[in-house]
Amino acid sequence: MVYELVTAAIVASVPDVILNLAEYLYGSNHKAFIGVQHMGRTLGLTADTTHNITGRPTKRAQRTYLADLKKIGAAYCQLPNEVFSLLGAQHAMFNGHWLQKRSQLTKTGKTLGSIFQDQQERTGLLFWVAKRQKHVLAVLDSPHVAYADALAEDMVTVDAQPGTPKVESVTLTSPVVNFLADTYFGEDYTRRRKRHGREDALQKFGYSHSFEKLRPFFGRDAYNVFNFEAVFAQGVSPLDAVKPFVLDAAAAPTLAEFKHLHFNLAMLGNNHANDYGSRALSTTLTQFNQAGISTIGAGNDRLEARKIVELTYGNQQVALFNGYWYRNPAYNLFDFYASADHAGVNCLDTMMADDIRQYKQSHPGATVIVSAHWGTDYGVIKPAQRTTAERLVRAGADLIIGHGPHRLQPIEYVGAVPVLYSIGNGVFNNDGEFERRGVPPYAAVLRLDLAKRQLYWCPIYANNLKTFWQPDFVSAADFEKVAQFNQPRFAVTQLAGNVNALVLPF
Predict the structure, then answer these.
(1) pTM (2 decimals)?
(2) Residue 370's closest CA among 399, 337, 412, 341?
(3) Pairing relationship of beta strands 499-505 and 491-495 according to DSSP bridges
(4) What are the beta bridge partners of residue 323?
(5) Cβ–Cβ < 8 Å for 345, 351
(6) Structural fold of domain 2-156
(7) Three-class DSSP category at 159
């Protein structure tokens, strides 16, 4: 019984587990409280750290200090190996509930174990061995479990390079930067339709059809950015049995069409770039590079995935960051995020805020734009999106462009910073779920004009079953309806080609 309780307490700092363990070891919670206070005095801890045994709020505020965590960590390192090894526990069952560690490092052999004082794993201790000596990293109030893991992994991995990400500089000859969200010609969806005897645009017209009406928007002189939501691969994926949608793309026709569209930068920080594993992702990065299209948001290791693209127009600098929000299955099941020695995508919730802060310190006059792949399919804005947006704005982001939910989400502001939580799909050739979910069937393409310091939000039709997988800019009548989605607080205008747009100054 005591082994199960100790294991459960190590895996998840759940108050009910701690109370049951206290009852078993000491006979009562009060006696356990006295025992914990005695242990605190023995270790020389600050009195404020031991006001109760669960960490729940009480009349007397319980505080955790980094110096106290270091003392506790040192005490753990003195335990006999037989006992110390319990810190490597990753799973436990308690009262019929399956408990699991969020931290990935012990699962991948990077650390010996860990213990946290909160269920979110933001304050605690991580242990590893180097040169036959136990070492401990104390983490206090980490913004995210993935952030603590990233820092710890760089410390324990041989030859890890936690330093400053590469900045790829581009000098623009035109002030126009265009943004297109989720883009995929739909090879996987086409195979599914073929099995059911359904015809679609890719079968009937090939790769050029879907962009036909949007093509003039992406001029040769502009800098054109898009989110490529697939990977160049074929055959069986290791995720076929565990991930609902695994998206592969044919490299040659896809890249040929992207080149024809004058695309300059592919954003890969999303939930499909690693669908076929790290080798396929590395190949995809190489193929984009060979085609003359830069990439951002993924890399052969974490440092490469954190790359920044810096655009210069006249005396203006714009820095582009790209990443995918933290998802527990993507981290613990799909192995999606880049690490110190593993290819993957950049995580919004690990080093990005630090990278923005560091970049802003050295480039105080630059404009920082974050392209964030986040949210749930056809859903509303999630609290985690807002939390991440606030953290990135505090770090120095000047504009956040979101995508991932396959639908429009409202434009909001964090202070003076516009956050476009989702601009929906670009050319993404699924069937869509607009009618079934009761969601307006629109998306938006963006144009940033650096000469005017204005951002244009240009809505398009996104219901593929109505457009036969060929999105187009909305009519003047429909534009009035779509514009109300963001409330009547923005000016409206019309760009070349009768493209209706909301105007966001920033």
Answers:
(1) 0.87
(2) 399
(3) antiparallel
(4) 372
(5) no
(6) Beta-lactamase (3.40.710)
(7) coil
